[in-house]
Structures are given as C-alpha cells and as structure tokens.
Amino acid sequence: MGKNLVKSAWYTTDAAFDWLYPERIQLLSKRHWTPVDVAKKAARFLATEPGKKVLDIGSGVGKFALIGAHYFPDVLFYGVEQRRELHHYAQAAKEYTKTNNAGFIHGNFTQVDLAEYDHFYFYNAFFENLDSNGRMDHQMEYSTGLYNYYSRYLFKELDAKPSGTRLATFHSLEDEIPSSYQIVDVSTDLLLKTWIKK
Ligand SMILES: C[S@@+](CC[C@H](N)C(=O)[O-])C[C@H]1O[C@@H](n2cnc3c(N)ncnc32)[C@H](O)[C@@H]1O
Fold it and tell me: What's the domain of life for this entry (predicted)?
C-alpha cells in the first residue's frame, strides 16, 4: 500500500509534483508548467480511447504528459521539447516515477511527424518569441518571425488532421488553430480551451 500511496501523492498538488525537479525548475513552474488540475482536465478530454497517442507540443519538463499518463494509464502521452536540459529533466522524472506510458523527444516540433499522433496539447509554446517576460532563459533565438512561422506551421499540420482530432490549448492566442476546429469547452478563467476537428 505504502508505495502506491506515495506515488499518487506526487499528482495531488503542484508543490508535490514539482518536487520531482531541481529547485531552479520548480521556480519556473508557476509561469511555465501546466498546473496539476489543468493537466488532469485537459488529459481527460484528450484520452478518448485506450492506445491513443497524445502529443504535448513544447513539453518542457514533461509535467502535462506525466500527469496525463498517471491518470490515464491506457493512453500514450508524448512530448517534444526543443531545450535539451528540459527534455533531460522530463526523461529523469519519467524514470523516477516509473511511468511506462509516457515518452519524450528532444527536438523542434517541426521535426516530428504529427501524423503519428491522435490528439494534441498546446501550452502557448511559441509565446516566448513575442514577449521578453515570457522567456525562461536567453539560450534561444527569439523573433516575431519565428512566432509566425511556428504558428503557421502548426496551423497547417492541425488542419491536415482527420475529423475528430482533439486539441486542448492553455493560454493560447489561437493563431495556430484552424477554423476547422470547433470549440467544445472553455474554463471559467478562459485559459483552458478544448477543440474538436469537424
Ligand atoms: C509554456 S512551456 C509548457 C511546458 C509543458 N507543455 C507543460 O505544460 O508543462 C512551453 C515549452 O515549449 C517549448 N518550445 C517552444 N517552442 C518550441 C518548438 N518550436 N519546438 C519544441 N519545443 C518548443 C519551450 O522550450 C517550453 O519548454
């Protein structure tokens, strides 16, 4: 009993979950990682059937994917992250929590074949290109051009997905969402939105 109790305790509050990471990463949590409650709600929407593959575009230290994988063990949660260090912490947290149904890819999302995934989660990953306050470091090149390029790229990829594809967005400016996606639900603070492709 003890082990399961301890394991599920990680997923109850943000403070408990963020303890999986070093202090520097914990300090970024409020601004950059999905809160536990939001992750649970978004994952519930995306975990439609056993065996489905959900991709977090810009997965950071893996918080959304690991929480989704814990609550929906029959669904596969993946994340792609451009920052090597964050990908490393996602991988380490996956191993530490012994999560078998999550996977992390290091790279730019434009290098990943989005056709291989069924549903998507997106926490405003490209915003760091627009707002200097939204940046977690000075390691990347930032520009409005890059924001536009990534948003248009994702827009086209999402538009090419089959009808029934689900998308959950958190804090999105909605530039990446094609009109073929119909809104299903909006949280009371307007930050979490769920969509289904017509
Ligand atoms: C706001 S954080 C969200 C992290 C994670 N999805 C979560 O909810 O906890 C956005 C992440 O997207 C990553 N990112 C931004 N642009 C990206 C790109 N073009 N390809 C891959 N990752 C990207 C950033 O490095 C950052 O870690």
Answer: Bacteria
Chain segment 23-61, per-residue pLDDT in tens: 999 999 999 999 999 999 999 999 999 999 999 999 999
Largest alpha-carbon pair distance within the chain? 53
- Distance from the CA of 121 to the center of ligand 1, in angstroms? 11
Look up the CATH number of the domain holding residue 184: 3.40.50.150
> Alpha helices, DSSP H only, in 72-186?
84-96, 144-159
Query: How many domains does the chain contain in total?
Result: 1
pLDDT tens string 164-181: 999 999 999 999 999 999
Residue carrying the six token digits 């959304």: 64
pLDDT digits (tens, 9 = 90+) for 112-130: 999 999 999 999 999 999 9
Tell me the C-alpha distance between 124 and 104, whole Å.
18
